[in-house]
Amino acid sequence: MSPGIQKVEAVDAGHAIRVQWEDGRQSCYPCVWLRDSCQCPLCFLPSASARRLLLQDLDVDITAKELALAGRKKISITWPDGHASEYEAEWLKKRCFSEEARAEMQADLFFPECQYWGSDLQLPKIPFEEVMCNDESAYKWLCTLKKVGIVLLTGAATKQGELVKLGHRIGFLRLTFYGPTWQVQDKADANNVAYTNGKLCFHTDYPVLHHPPGVQFLHCIKQTAAGGESEVVDGFHVCNKLKKQNPEAYQILSSTAVDYTDVGVDYCDFAVHCKQRIIDIDSRGQAVRINYNNATRDTVFDIPAEKVRPFYAALKEFHDLLNSAEHKFTYKLKPGDIVTFDNWRVLHGRQSYPSGSEVTRHLEGAYADWDVVMSRLRLLRKRVLKRD
Fold first, then answer.
1. Hey, what domains does the chain have and what are their CATH numbers?
2. 235-245 and 308-322 helices, crossing angle to 10°
3. Is 304 strand, coil or helix?
4. How many whole angstroms separate alpha carbon 298 and alpha carbon 275?
5. Cα 14 from Cα 64, distance rounded (Å)
6. Considering the entire predicted model, what is its pTM?
7. What are 301-317's pLDDT values in tens digits?
8. Residue pair 344/288 in contact by the 8 Å Cβ criterion
9. What pLDDT sits at residue 388?
10. Torsion of CA 237, 243, 244, 248, to 10 degrees
């Protein structure tokens, strides 16, 4: 239960409202934000959770004309033009501008908890059918996927189409130039290095797109007897190591725009080109997305010649850290397994396997955007934890 309001008063020459809470804490709310956030039917459309108030009608220098406190659970403000707004105590408390309250709200919205791992990864496993039929299991799956970056779903049918069902469970899959789903197997005249039996080095999928898919699903339908082991590495964990070990290399990889290209025919014909920094960082310098696929890194390189060697030295150091025994985790998918992982964080690879006259290894793949996954995670949390 949120504490009630003990006192409310205007401050900052009337440009802000200070709320004194019953627990002794205080919150300060700028009047321009309060007016902009009015929840009355004229200013807000509840059915769409959307603001109706036009920015052109907002006075950035607005002050409160009258203040009133109703039963310690609501404040009322009358504005200079006579418009009246009401704000519930609980609504205000959640939106307090203190650093602590803002951090709590951001954690509630975006699930930022991150559990780093290396070769010691205890691969989380959940039965596929439980995820499909049980909200608690689906919630656990998506929470773990967000925190750890990888979850193995077990016991799916060994046929194509299971990923379409999984897509419906979260909302919908991401369509790309390789189709809504795609078949990873050794193919003649392969239009992608994944469609061969060779070794795949650590990479993230599709950095050639301006907005690479956030989550990847790989469903094992058939597995080769020899070879074909999967490898994964926690890219964020490795980035933290690189930043500490060689700040200059980290700075180069997080500031240099690398050209990527992918040209061919699949779901349709395509000629895709993009620039990405191998390590995308936030305002704190923390890695938030890895964009690295050596196979589709273009020979075109739009940087001065004197910066090329330092870039390659930085990239090689990053590559060596990714491949160190302490960081990578190796496992082998069994038919019916579906590995789900964060394509912005977890780099994956594959060991080679023998070719044959018939298909010996067959995975079906699909993508989803983090927006879709996070939407389902929030809805499941509300349902499972019965939260407003």
1. 5-101 (3.30.2020.30), 125-385 (3.60.130.10)
2. 130
3. coil
4. 10
5. 6
6. 0.95
7. 999 999 999 999 999 99
8. yes
9. 65
10. 160
